[in-house]
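Bench log, entry 3. Co-assembly request; chain sequences pasted below exactly as received.
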Amino acid sequence: MLSGILLFNQKGENLIFRAFRPDCRPRLADIFRIQVISNAQVRSPILTLGSTTFSHVKHENIYIVAITKSNANAGIIFEFLFRFIALGKQYFGKFDEDAVKNNFVLIYELLDEILDFGYPQNTDVDVLKMYITPDNISSAIRSVSAPSSDTSKITMQATGAQSWRRGDIKYRKNEAFVDVIEDVNLLMSATGTVLRADVTGQIMMRAYLTGTPECKFGLNDQLVVGQVQQGIEGPMGNYDGGRKATRAAAGSVTLEDCQFHQCVQLGKFESDRTISFVPPDGEFELMRYRAVENVNLPFKVHAIVREVGTTKVEYSIAVKANYGSKLFATNVVVRIPTPLNTASITERTTQGKAKYEPENNCIVWKIARFVGGSEFVLSAEAQLTSMTNQKAWSRPPLNMTFSLLMFTSSGLLVRYLKIFEKTNYSSVKWVRYMTKAGSYEIRF
Amino acid sequence: MSSGHGDAKLFARVSSMCYVIILFLDSGTSTVFHLPGLNHLPLALTRELFGTTPYLKKWLLKRGGTILDQNHAHNRYPLVTADDCSKCFGLHAYIDEQGKVAELRQELTNPGKKDKNHAAKKNALKKIVANMTMSNNDMVALFPDIIACMQIPVLEIKKMCFLYLQHYARLKPDIALRALPVLQEDMQDSNPLIRALALRTLSYIHVREFVEGTIEPLKRLMVDQDPYVRKTAAFTVAKVYDHDKRLIEVSDLIDRLNRMLKDDNPTVVASALASLQDIWERNENIKLTIDYASASKIVSILPDCNEWSQTYVLEALTSYVPQDSGEALLLAERIASRLAHSNSAVVLTCIRVMMYLMNYISDQRKVEELSRKLSPPLITLLSKPPEIQYLALRNAILILQQRPEALQNDIRVFFCKYNDPIYVKVTKLELIFMLANKSNIAVVLNELREYATEIDVQFVRKAVRAIGKLAIKIESAARQCIDTLLELVNAKIPYIVQEATVVIKNIFRKYPNQYESIISTVIGQIDELDEPEAKAAIIWIIGEYADRIDNADALLQDYLSTFHEEPIEVQLALLTATVKLFLHRPTKGSSIVPGVLKWCTEETDDPDLRDRGFMYWRLLSTDPVTAKKVVMGPKPPITAESEKLDPVTLEELCLGIGTLATIYLKPVQQVFRAARPRRLQDSPALQRKKEDLNRALGSPGMNLAYPSLMNAVTTPGGTPVAGHQSAIEAADEYFKNLSLSDNSGGDILTSPTAGGVAGNAYVVSQSAPQQIYHPQAGVAGNGDLLL
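Structure output for the full assembly:
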């Protein structure tokens, strides 16, 4: 597995060098600096030189590099690097060069704990914070003479079945917040056909619950996962389309696939589709899913872009909101690419404000509040300067960002969240839905 | 930051106690000031008030600053802006090495009476740890003082001392030895965290006495009452094995490690498995086999393991060789629920094990059922960060070749997003090419045409090449592909035209006498071509169709006028094309041929060119009719299937799904020399017949089916010239290969850094020659399907 973890800043200074095996030599830092940081043409996150492989991830203004000397499990490498970044964020708020420089000791201490001989160990922040704490927080564990009951609790936690949760959590008010956040991705061709429309969803949970609560989580009445089940309804033939519609209306959702936080009992989900778990304390991602069927696109975009000769481009962009009039989207931004040699833009909009951003080569049209059912139009004209070396304009796709509350593109609903705990306390549960634009692209 | 007076000022915050200011002078030298007791030096103030060097100098001296180093040539540090420098406190070590170390020693050894709870010591240690990487080993001077601190019974201080010890023990083994008793004592501590910490630290240190001193306490700690200590001990065995194989082999530690598999704590079991596998990987003589009962047992602990432990357990399952189809099926079904885990390492490793077990399952319906389960989780990984997407996509290529039924997805999930990083885009492009078929070709071509207008030149080229290769792969779609290509050619973007020319040549070869109507369009772009591969392709077209191109002789003449300046592949193409012209139209060719043959035989140093020249000369002068038969004869067919991996490599890579080798899609030992080979183990339940494999390996069509392999063996002068027909084939093949290797290799050779590396500049392991693997700029296009 990993031979070492290295951290660099953007200038290529080696901030952290932690070797886990004797084959991780200090000069490898120089090689990475030369080969990757000062090389403008890096085309892969993985570089193998001789017997050494450098796998790197960039986060904020630092490079996080894993060094391996064998044909290691790349899944572990990258998943670990991202986990390390997440830990950094949970510990320091922001994981960047300044955070590293202000916390050298803590980072070394963490690395020593979460990797042993280069093998990732327990990386759950909750348990780690029991015995690796920023120095301004005084902890009993920090002194060697801590009572043995305390330390064995830690070691049980770090090696136990529920490594993500401490047993002694107490809240006066027991609350759980569920956020269903969907990224809807769209790729539409110039002719208006949908090339790809899918949803990647996330169910985030913030649990502030006492003790060791067992949670049961229910989605739509009918939850179909994967394509396997569809084989059964195959013979229905033409009926299929109609059935789908009624199914959707009856509160069913078809998920292509889903993945769960490690606290969820996967065996149970596999057998009877119930999601049961003992949540970690605080915020975590309970579930991640993907849907490709019955995707409700919140916005329809109709774009007409005409190049008139070589000196002018005419735009007419119509955006229609495709959701109920009680809902409204916020922060709607449409980015409309313009040719590189654009000299000036004149634009008109029926709603919102449009501005030409020459540094990004696009017109940015912002609509703060977009009420369901309404349709707005932008028309614009770009004047081009003539260029000696006339190259065809690559016409990158138009893209949209927005966020829309109380709407899910996949149709997913949270039916219930039941919490069982031996003291039988009552708890308050909140659910919120939000649909955002993932990569919402329209070619023209 | 230039002040307008030509001086660049730099200053760095050293610690909370003092500033160091460096003035860079025009003369290329610098002056270094040390300014104690000044906590905040406002950036703006300095820039505004002290615009000139003398003024600043005066101010600094007045404030009690001392000049540490004058007229120091500053080529050791790049000239950076003041803003950069204010953040950079690595500089100080070089400036104030001695003073700094003395200061820290003072803080450590004599913290004063008021040092309650060792606060001053902690502070000093923190500074030392912070400086371990940033300073060039200056901190090593403090080793004895650190050893003295190790005795302090404060975990925080211990941890920092141990970190220091791990970092510097190899530099000063003699001083490090003094720490050994402390560690040994700590391994008996009542606190399990300390016991584990001491053991972990001790076993990291690559010094003989430490390694030997690990063995005895290790035996004790492997059966410690605390699982955290046992887990640490399990990994320690592999660690010691890495330091010194012999020590482990003469002891009974591996047996003891085996016994840990019966532990009732899942994390301990998983750690023992990981440790055993680590040892297995590094010794060919160790066998790791797991029987069904054990395999079944470790699967049952999966739900109680943390995510990493799950990965180790799953990895271990590939050491289980099913003896019975039913057992394999049962196990595969039992681990299938892991596919829904949010950790991609668990998912990919689970896919690996399921693919492995499928080899031992006889019921094909069940195999297909299992295969279908693999695709959705793999696609879900595409919503993870790009690095993980990339890994998932590379593995999708692999899975697609081994189990085509597993990826019956809509091809559109692989369409590129505009902001995908280039490595993701290129891999998606390969998958689109592989999944393209008659029914989706229209959508695919539309998509590829979009890609051909993107910015990244290499990506555009691959997209164009993919269109051409689709024409060869799907015969019924050839016309559509050609139309798309011509449309792109009309945009007159040079690199698109060049790429298109090359693929159109291949289309002509694949479908003779079908699409020659487009020759004129292609020839019309001749002026756009300046790359050797494209030139060679157009020259091949001119020669092949010399009878249909009226001005073929004039076109060739154009190129021949610069014959001597052309690269070898173009020269070879010119030679063959000239001979073809002569055979097609003797009147026009007769004036050109003798000159070209003379150049090729007498005025060249290249053995290939000379050999081919002689061969044509002999052929033409003895029997022109046979010559025509030989030169214009039917050509061996080309296919688009050449990118398939050979069965042996495929088998091995499938046993390593999710590993680094899958990024390169090359034989594992080619990239990771030290990797231990993995093969499917024979058993009564093994489904794939070995004969199939052998047949595929020994097939005579190998060279044609795997043109890229030829690259490795064909060296200049090594072209076989046994029979005439084969000579021409070989020549054609060779010249195809040459251009191939040049194109793909070019990226590596022209990039300034990589070129240096291949030589001698940055040698990682001196025992072996350097090889660079960069997935996209693949060396010979073996793993790079679209080259």
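The mean pLDDT of chain B is 77. Chain B has 43 helices and five strands.
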